Amino acid sequence: MHVDAKTSFIRIVEAHIERGVAVSTPEEYFRDAKLRVMVLRLRADSPALIADPQLPHRAAAYALRCAQAGHIPYDFALDHRSADKLFCSAVASEACRTVGVDLWAGLSHVSSPGPSLAGKRL
Description:
Largest sheet: 3 strands, antiparallel
Distance between the termini: 30 Å
Structural class: alpha+beta
Helix content: 25-40%
Oligomer: single chain
């Protein structure tokens, strides 16, 4: 989510299966039926966030600029190492990566019976 510093206008940047990376207002975003929503935020005690409180804004501004610059297709392969196509959480991950925060500490598996990291149960 990007909040304009001057106008407080909110835009949501998401990876949409049918459209690829898209920008919408909150009203547009919630008009489209959602089965689930994931919000990724840095922890308040994150050293990177403490050092630079504008870090989330800079990451959101990057995501918005990229989405407005041209079409970014949806990544059906879910390859978190590639930025030429993005899936939902990869939008946030790629934006954070550009400001020095790595959100991918390891791979998790939705179908696992519990949280896992690179195939190992935590």
